Amino acid sequence: MTSGAGDPLAEAAPRPVWWEGRERTAPEPLVGATTADLVVVGGGLTGLWAAIVALDEAPGRRVVVLESGHVGAGASGRNGGFVSDSLTHGLSHGVATWPSELGELVRLGRQNLREIDDFVADEKIDADFRLCGKTTVATRPHEVEALRRLAGLQREHGEESTYLTAEQVRADVDSPTYLAGLRTTVGGLVDPVALTLGLRDAAVRRGAVVHEASPVMRMERDGTVLCVTPSGAVRADQVLLATNAFKPLLRRLRSYVLPVWDHVLATEPLSAEQLARIGWRENQGLTDAGNQFHYYRRTPDDRILFGGYDAIYYFGNGSDAAKEQRDASHRLLARHLRETFPQLSDVRITHRWAGMIDTTSRFTPVFGTAMGGRVAYAVGYTGLGVAASRFGARVGLDLLAGRETERTAVPLVRRRPVPFPPEPLRWPAVQVTRAALAREDRTGRRGRLLRTMDRFGVGFNS
Q: What is the per-residue pLDDT across 453-462, written as a single tens digit (0 to 9) for each?
């Protein structure tokens, strides 16, 4: 990738490409005291879906959304825009973790995605929402057979899945690194900021009140729940926490959710001639097959968004915004992008950013209630929350209502993941696990540590 000074990142703006050309409205923070039937903490996808569903269930209900920054400032506006039907972080992980319940989880996930598709169409949200599937590529010899096995597993569960030889996958998207591919038709792509802003508008049309620049500093219970912000407070009957990887308002969530920084680049828009060098005629998303994997796609204006691989955890659950710009991670991604598509060496990188992934040890969300059932939480999507956030929002509302549903009945919801150890043990535990995953990527062998973690339901086999 080129730049005027020879530095591939020299011209890269330190912000998500999804906000390019969009102006944010001035925030309206909460000022003074008010009341609500439901307060949603977090103005991302989970929080906005919760507001929409709550108001569809009970029109006229007073719903207040409190967002610490601006709507879409967190992972909801920083991700790659991949839309997955999976609630189990992939079929392989589902088979390993919930084998007897996998059929129901697959059904719920696909139903959730269909309903999102219908909602986006009905609300006329212009978010380039496309159920175009994706291609997973093998870049190491041992991954070729793994893709063959995954193709069979996907077909067993009713998913259209086509194994591709190196020649076949390169006929679609041409990279010298590809040894095989797996083309699936489930899932797709979206502009995540356009989706998030569309959900905000849909929530407001239904009567939700959204306050940006209104971080909740603490919650107090005295019969109801008082949510205190720097310039105001809301007394609510119920609260739903949709705080992703940010510092949780409940102490228990620190044991279950670990913030991991995921880094992303975007190029300038490609010309028709540049696109012709690589093909990519189906315009689907791509990922590679390792534990440390890249995800990449074309944006609506034909940039290449390229992210993943070098996920970073900082000691003590570090979530300082200054950590977003990490030269080592962004330079590594730039090198990998050049290796993937050497024929695009003349394309400039124009954006660099990162976002926090709310990781759990099981790679799937954690749900629950607190404060006598008046507070519910739905966090821990581990990078697959663009669609699963709607399922999580509905689970959180089910828990607040105290109702048994098909969603609350599944063990993914009823059982919590294994907690992470506290610091100072947490950071070295993450580094040792990361090294074991990288070793499996290099060798194709799972290793004793990862096999032991598998037996305890710790999810690193997706």
A: 888 878 654 4
Spatial distance between the Cα atoms of 173 and 167, rounded to a whole number of angstroms: 10
Closest CA to 170 of 80, 33, 280: 280
Number of H helices, E strands in the chain: 13, 18
Q: What angle do CA 438, 315, 46 make, to 5 degrees?
A: 85
In contact, 166 and 209? CB cutoff 8 Å: no
Residues in the chain predicted with pLDDT less than 70, given as ranges, are 2-5, 459-462
Q: Catalogue all structural domains in the chain, each as residue range(s) with its CATH number.
A: 31-132+186-256+363-420 (3.50.50.60), 426-455 (no CATH)
What is the DSSP pairing of strand 375-379 with strand 232-241? parallel
H or E stretch at 194: helix 192-205
Distance CA 274, CA 417 (A): 46
**Which residue in 303, 252, 232 sits closest to 32, CA to CA?**
232
Sign of CA dihedral 76, 79, 83, 85: negative
User: What are the pLDDT digits (tens) for 78-116?
Assistant: 999 999 999 999 999 999 899 999 999 999 999 999 999
What is the pLDDT, as a whole number, of residue 2?
A: 65
- Burial profile 424-450: b = 16 or more Cβ within 10 angstroms, e = fewer: eebbebbeebbebbebbbeeeebeebb
Residue 344 contacts residue 270 (beta carbons within 8 Å): yes
Residues in the chain: 462
- Give the pairing type, strands 209-211 and 134-138: unpaired
The closest of 376, 380, 398 to 389, measured between CA atoms, is 380
